[in-house]
Amino acid sequence: MKILIKTFKELSLDQLYQILQLRSEVFVVEQNCVYQDIDGKDGEALHILGYKDEILVAYTRCFEQGLYFEEAAIGRVIVKENYRKYGFGHEILEASIKAIKERFKTTRIKLSAQQYLIEFYESHGFATTGEGYLEDGIPHIAMLKE
């Protein structure tokens, strides 16, 4: 998988369209969750894009400390459904952690995980914190990497 790291202003229109299409495909259609994906925060995010054969198959957006949480943050972690068996989720998350360390100079990262993915995030050094909660009708829990 080829990884690109871009600020919002560095994204091409095609890349932005691919990101929004993938997020809608998984978070809205596949997960049957009606929510406002375009939340006004993409402009402040660092976008991590994973391509396989020119297709956007994995993505996250990352935030500097204090922009989303007190800690640096990773959100919108996503892998296209028919590409999940290849380990691209692990690759995109590792690239995101590395980008935060290099660009934001911190290893303290928080994310809001769908609860069924707790073990996935734990395998990357995240630990649950606090109580679970519903976000857009889906069980989530906060996770922190020190």
How would you sum up this structure in a few lines?
With about 150 residues, this protein is of the alpha+beta class.
Strand order of the largest sheet: 1-2-3-4-5-7-6
Question: Could you say which structural class the secondary elements and strand pairing correspond to?
Answer: alpha+beta
The figure for the number of domains is 1
Distance between the termini: 27 Å
The CATH superfamily appears as Gcn5-related N-acetyltransferase (GNAT)
Helix content: 25-40%
| Main sheet specs | 7 strands, mixed
Mean pLDDT metric: 95
Overall outline? globular
Tally of DSSP β-strands = 7
- Kindly identify the CATH topology: Aminopeptidase
Radius of gyration: 14 Å
* The top level CATH class name: Alpha Beta
Specify the number of helices: 3
* Strand fraction: 35-45%
- Please trace the helix and strand order, writing H or E for each element: EHEEEHEHEE
Low-confidence stretches: none
The CATH architecture would be 3-Layer(aba) Sandwich
Oligomer: single chain
Write the layout of secondary structure elements.
Blueprint: E1 2-7, H1 13-30, E2 46-52, E3 55-63, E4 72-79, H2 88-104, E5 109-114, H3 118-122, E6 127-135, E7 138-145
Parallel strand pairs: 4-5
Antiparallel strand pairs: 1-2, 2-3, 3-4, 5-7, 6-7
List keywords for this structure.
146 residues, alpha+beta, Aminopeptidase, 7-stranded mixed β-sheet, 3 helices, 7 strands, globular
